[in-house]
Amino acid sequence: MHIMEGYLPAAHAAGWFAVSAPFVVAGAIRLKRIVTERPQAKMTLAAAGAFTFVLSALKMPSVTGSCSHPTGTGLGAVVFGPAVMAVLGTIVLLFQALLLAHGGLTTLGANVFSMAIVGPWVSWAVWRVAGKLGASIAVAVFLGAALGDLSTYATTSVQLALAYPDPASGFLGAVLKFGGIYAITQIPLSIAEGLLTVVVMNALSGRAGKADEIRVLSGEVK
Amino acid sequence: MAINRSWWLIAATVAIVAAPLVLPGLGGDFKGSDDQGTDAILASRPGYQPWFQPLWKPPSDEVESLLFALQAALGAGFLGYMIGRRHSSQRGDVARR
Predict the structure, then answer these.
(1) Residue B33 lies in a domain
(2) Residue B85 lies in a domain
(3) What distance, in Å, lies between the first and last C-alpha atoms of chain B?
(4) Strand A60-61 to strand A66-68: parallel, antiparallel, or no bridges (unpaired)?
(5) Fold of A10-217
(6) Residues 34-73, chain B: which have Cβ within 8 Å of A?
(7) Which residue from A6, A135, A139, A182 has the highest number of Cβ atoms inside 10 Å of its Cβ?
(8) Does B69 reside within a domain?
(9) Which of B10, B50, B87 lies nearest to residue A199, judging by beta carbons?
(10) Is B20 within 8 Å of A167 when comparing Cβ atoms?
């Protein structure tokens, strides 16, 4: 999902910065409030950041014969709500842009939008809806994390199609072309991410499947 | 029960990741999708020059893999510490009761 440095036209790069900035600011405010109100949540917040750190470093092979990486943003989105992941995801993307030449500073706004905003919001929304429909915690977390991961890559495909519409088939053709590269490759990996998120969440809370599992993690109950 | 389920989930995750490498008929050169995306841009816009370069690039693939491994190790190390801490504090609670 990383759009490489210098590969978005300047106007697009600036536009995605403008779209992403309010989410990151709102996330920072929310993060500050969580830490003040529930200091015991600090460790889980750090763990949510660490999970994103690990998963986004792991490039895994997919059935399409190419490699891609999960994002790990679903765990924090489910526990703390999607807003804080805008901040944690931005930190991870900055690390990769500065030290790994993976992604970039000019494309940071766009990459933050796909990985740290759309992914977490989709994860959170799917998790809420699945829970309302009566899914168990594990199933709701799995669906949230997996679909959030997939939506990040779908977003990247749309972002690239907006910047580089196909000369012959236009924007939609380009969505399909980039979607074939990013989103299809990501399907098995997002399933893997969903499964791993359930495992790590259970291990962190120590109360797998119990009704207060998520609230233990978010520091709302001890 | 939950521990048991976790092992099954981990096994399924490993199977998903390993399948493309070992199943006949699948496979390919396993290039990164990010690089393929960049290639697709260059294919549709021949001669495109990125207008900004990374400030710093790892000087070799080895150094790059070192940094990626470091990223994963830092994250995994902290997660392991957290899981251990939670479990030992829970055991402490039980003992106090």
Answers:
(1) no
(2) yes
(3) 24
(4) antiparallel
(5) Arp2/3 complex 21 kDa subunit ARPC3 (1.10.1760)
(6) 34, 36-38, 40-41, 44-45, 48, 50-58, 64, 67-69, 71-72
(7) A182
(8) yes
(9) B10
(10) no
Asked if A101 lies within 8 A of B57 by C-beta distance, the reply is yes
Pair of tokens at residue B18: 């390993």
Q: Return the closest-CA partner of residue A87 out of A145, A48, A127.
A: A48
The answer to whether the Cβ–Cβ distance between B55 and A64 falls below 8 Å is: no
Give tens-digit pLDDT for A96-135.
999 999 999 999 999 999 999 999 999 999 999 999 999 9
Q: Domain for residue B39, yes or no?
A: no
Q: Tell me which residues of chain A, numbers 126 to 165, contact chain B at a CB-CB cutoff of 8 Å.
A: 138, 153, 156, 160, 164
Structure tokens at A10: 């300047």
Greatest pairwise CA separation for chain B in angstroms = 71
Domain range spanning residue B74? Answer: 61-97
CA gap A144, A136 in Å, rounded? 12
For A178, nearest residue in chain B (alpha carbons): B37
The number of folded domains in chain B is: 1
What pLDDT, in 10s, does the model give residues A10-25?
A: 999 999 999 999 999 9
ipTM: 0.90
- List chain A domain ranges: 10-217
Single pTM value for the model: 0.94
Contacts of A168 in chain B (CB under 8 A): none
